[in-house]
């Protein structure tokens, strides 16, 4: 069965105290107001994972993600954090290949593949991001661009490894810009992604993979986006920093 997922990518925001408050507010609101079957994930910065891991462990509603992971298991990699470290503090998911990491940290397809492998090897679940820049969409090359991103990082995984992966489609022109993809643009890309996945892996795995939309998703547009057949939830940036907005998005299925 395909899971419905709403994940909040906090990026480099919040202090420790603010992080604790935000998670407990979301937890309370979700408990009181959400009755559907939705997997709620928060992805805070690294320093807060351990404390938030204590809050989310054994919590059936909230799950914890890291925003990044090293492709290496351990050793002399100053400043890096391994998948086993993330696991040891209660992290369940890892965002891999966010466009900001591809852009500012030059993470290429091969590096992302290694991060996927390292993550899955520790029993963690990757949320693999893809999405085109504006010039590729304007040139009508967006399907090809995203197809190549999927192929270049995912296609070397086995079917069993791929079973652990959630995909997030995040058109770069929609991230943090206030300009969201229309529900039709999202649906056609999600359907295309699912079709590409069915060529790389078995059809059932592709059918069961959750594909999230990300890019200026908010309480005003989430319902229409989530109503699309191949949109299984959202990866939320800005709106995940406010408990009211994030919960309203979770309630949009
Ligand atoms: C993101 O960066 O993953 C994202 C979707 O950001 P925003 O919702 O702010 O566009």
Automatic annotation (TrEMBL):
- What SUPFAM superfamilies has UniProt attached to this entry? Triosephosphate isomerase (TIM) (SSF51351)
What does the record give as the active site? Answer: 98 (electrophile), 170 (proton acceptor)
Chief subcellular location: cytoplasm
Residues reported in the UniProt entry to bind substrate:
9-11, 176, 216, 237-238
InterPro entries from the xrefs? Aldolase_TIM, TIM_sf, TrioseP_Isoase_bac/euk, Triosephosphate_isomerase, Triosephosphate_isomerase_AS
**What would be an example GO MF term here?**
triose-phosphate isomerase activity
Coiled-coil annotation reads: none
The EC number(s) attached to this protein equal 5.3.1.1
Compartments in which it is found: Cytoplasm
To which pathway does this protein belong? Carbohydrate degradation; glycolysis; D-glyceraldehyde 3-phosphate from glycerone phosphate: step 1/1; Carbohydrate biosynthesis; gluconeogenesis
Q: How does it assemble?
A: Homodimer.
- So what does this one do? Involved in the gluconeogenesis. Catalyzes stereospecifically the conversion of dihydroxyacetone phosphate (DHAP) to D-glyceraldehyde-3-phosphate (G3P).
What is the official name of this protein in its record? Triosephosphate isomerase
The source organism is Pontibacter aydingkolensis
Whichever gene encodes this chain, its name is tpiA
């Amino acid at each position: 069965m395909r899971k419905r997922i709403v994940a909040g990518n906090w990026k480099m925001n919040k202090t420790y105290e603010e992080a604790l408050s935000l998670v407990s507010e979301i937890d309370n609101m979700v408990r009181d107001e959400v009755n559907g079957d939705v997997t709620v994930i928060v992805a805070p910065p690294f320093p807060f994972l351990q404390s938030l891991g204590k809050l989310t462990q054994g919590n059936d509603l909230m799950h914890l993600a890291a925003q990044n992971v090293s492709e290496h298991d351990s050793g002399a990699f100053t400043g890096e954090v391994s998948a086993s470290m993330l696991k040891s503090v209660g992290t369940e998911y890892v965002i891999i290949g966010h466009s900001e990491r591809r852009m500012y940290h030059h993470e290429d397809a091969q590096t992302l593949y290694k991060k996927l492998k390292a993550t899955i090897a520790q029993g963690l679940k990757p949320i693999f991001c893809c999405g085109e820049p504006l010039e590729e969409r304007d040139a009508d090359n967006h399907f090809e661009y995203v197809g190549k991103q999927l192929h270049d990082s995912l296609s070397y995984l086995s079917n069993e490894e791929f079973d652990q992966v959630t995909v997030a489609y995040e058109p770069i022109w929609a991230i943090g810009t206030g300009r969201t993809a229309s529900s039709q643009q999202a649906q056609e890309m999600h359907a295309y992604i699912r079709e590409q996945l069915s060529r790389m892996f078995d059809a059932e795995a592709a059918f069961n993979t959750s594909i999230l939309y990300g890019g200026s998703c908010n309480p005003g547009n989430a319902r229409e986006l989530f109503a699309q057949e191949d949109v299984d939830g959202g990866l939320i940036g800005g709106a995940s920093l406010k408990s009211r907005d994030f919960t309203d998005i979770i309630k949009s299925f």
